[in-house]
Amino acid sequence: MSRTGRHFLQIPGPSPVPERVMRAMDRPVIDHRGPEFGALGREVLAGCRAVFQTEGPVVIYPSSGTGAWEATIVNTLSSGDKVLMFETGHFATLWRQMAARWGIEVEFVPGDWRRGVDPEIVEATLAEDRARDIKAVMVVHNETSTGVTSRVAEIRRAIDRANHPALLLVDTISSLGSADFRHDAWGVDVTVSGSQKGLMLPPGLGFTAISEKARAASRSNNLPRSYWDWEEMLKPNAGGYFPYTPATNLLYGLREAVAMLLEEGLPEVFARHRRLAAATRAAVQGWGLEVLCQEPSEYSPVLIAVLLPEGHDADAFRRIVLDDFDMSLGAGLSKLAGRVFRIGHLGECNALTLMGALSGVEMGLDAAGVPHQRGGVLAAMSSLRAGDGR
Q: Which secondary-structure segment (H or E) carries 192?
């Protein structure tokens, strides 16, 4: 089918890349050992600390977010260590599988994919661990497959109440730069992220923000690493350089993306995402459909996962929306395949972009014959006018 106009990319990442960022990357590659690159490296590393809200080091890898997961495991844990994880969705399950491949023993608390990590279970489990066998609590902050955000600050307080020395390792791949997250203030030991969501870049960069406690653990653990070794990265990072060839043009884009976030102001960025999320939930309720997340305090500001009625295939609905209206919506993953579709509203997204996307969803519900009430778009408009979600 011939396409005209703008494609609506409304998946929860990779998110649309802003024109400013694309133009920033459209530059010649420079000598990654020269002084111009050193200045670039120092600037982006400082900018990343501002976005992660940390005074500590942030390591940037030419990798996916999954690579940053692996870097976190091999730098902090040893084969045979025990960790506490929670079944909050597809990506928590993948992280569990990766840990197991490295010989980590995972205590995996089952979940229904409709709620985040329960801080009370964290506290109770750690309080029972009198031998201090659990070396880390591993949490997905914003579970991209479900639209559920776990309460990291409360999890940190639960660990502290149990007086337990476990590290707190958090995946912010789909939340950094879109949802409020504070590495230092919330006492996180390693924050994992990626470039392609709230940072508004193409895929290709992975990040780990590191506490001093995590860095100390990396000096005594026994898992092998070379490419992922924090210490080998941090030594040249002091001058803005990398131990191997960096993704130079993505770093140009990262510098611009960080500038955009800081120009708007992180509190304003987070408030904008909350308003868009509230409007999207209002639309879903206006259609008479069901938001997957069942705990209002855990609603994601990044995406909404929508359950379709029994007998209706969410993937067939998404195909109709793509074919008829040139809009991509997120698929249901693993056990949610065919049951949900996901509306992403992160990164460079504003009220008019969202209203266009919601109009496309409402037209798609009509075209696919999905039973729904009229008025979801109007409900979203009312929510935006009221400033809901501030």
A: strand 190-194
